[in-house]
C-alpha cells in the first residue's frame, strides 16, 4: 500500500484509532477517512472514484442503507466493499454478497482483515488500469504501433457481479489497438477463445485430494483441472472460458481432449512407478448427451492401458436424468475396468437420489455450498453426517471440496468424510492456480482436431 491508497471507513460508532493502528502494523502510510453519519457517507461516495477500499461496519451497512447508496455510484467505483462484523448476530454472507460486498471479516481476526485489505487494494488497482485503458481505447489514444494492447477486457467493475446477480449478461469489450474501436458481443468473445485454443492454450493442472482415513492403504488422488492460457501467459479459470465453449457447441471436443491428455499423463505416472495414483476427470453434462461422444470416451478409456480402478469420472446430477442411455454405455466400460463415477453437485437432502444410483456411483463430493454452509452454520452437522453415512452404507467414498480453513476439518472428520481437497491442503501460488504434480500444455493441434471420433 502506498500513500496514494485512500480508504473509506464507515462506522456509526467510530473506532478510527483501532482500525488505523491495525493498518499501520503492516503499512506505514495511507489515507483513512472516517465517516459516521449519512451526510458524510453521501459526501464521500459523491467522489466514488477517489477510494481504493471501503471498509464498513456490518451494522452500519444495514442501518445507513449503504447498499442502496453504492448502487448509484457503482460505475464510478474502483474500490471493493469489505464488511467488518462484531459478534452476534452474524451477517448473512450470501445476502450481502448479492448486494456487491467483496468479503466479510471478523473484527477480531486481524491477520485475515489485513490479508483481505491487501487483496482488495490490488483488485482496485487493476480496475483503475482497465478503466483507463477503456477510456484510451474509446478516445482513440492507443498507439498504432501496438500489435494488440488488449484482446478482450471483461467488465471487472464492482457493479459487474451485481448486474450478473440481477440477471444481466456480463459485458465484454474487444479493443482494436489500431483504431481504438470498441466492439461488443458474444461473437468477438467466441473468436477470442477459439484463437486461444487454436494457439495451443489449453492446459491441465492436477490438484491433490488428501485422505482423512488413517486406517486404510493410502492412494494418491488428484483432480484434473483445465485452464486456458491467454496471450499474456495468464491462466484463465474455467468460468472465464467454458461458458463460451459451451455456448459455441465445442464442449464435447474439449472434454475429449481433456480425457485423452489426462489418461496419457496418468499412464506416464503409472509407468514411472506410481501404480496407486487415482485421477479424477470432469465431464460436462452436454458431452454425454451425444451417443457418439460417449462411445469415443469409452474407447479412450479402454485403449489407455491405465491401471484398473485408477480413473474416476466426475458428473453432475443432470446426467443421470437427461443422458441415461449414454451414461449406461460409458459406465459399463468404466465398471469393467474397476473405474468409478463421482457425482459432484449434491445437496444434503439428496438421499433418495443416492440410493437409486448405487449401481453407478462410486464417489460423491460435498461441494462448496455444503462445506461453507457448515462453517457459516447454514447447514447442520447432523444433516451432513446423515448424507455421508448414507453414501458410505451404499459403498461410496466421500470427498469434501473447498476445504479452505482449519475450522472445517473437525466437522468433516466428525462426519466421517474420506478425503478433502481445496486451498487448505494446496495453497495457490503465482505460477499455478493450484500446486500440481505436472502441468500438461496442449500441443499445436487444437482440441477439435485432436478429438477424433466425436460429434
From TrEMBL:
Signal peptide region: none
Alphabetical list of Gene3D superfamilies matching this protein: EAL domain
Superkingdom classification of source: Bacteria
InterPro entries in the cross-refs: Cyclic-di-GMP_PDE-like, EAL_dom, EAL_sf
SUPFAM superfamilies: EAL domain-like
MF annotations from Gene Ontology: cyclic-guanylate-specific phosphodiesterase activity
Domain EAL: 186-442
Any Pfam family: EAL
Name listed for the protein in its UniProt record: Diguanylate phosphodiesterase
Organism: Thiocapsa imhoffii
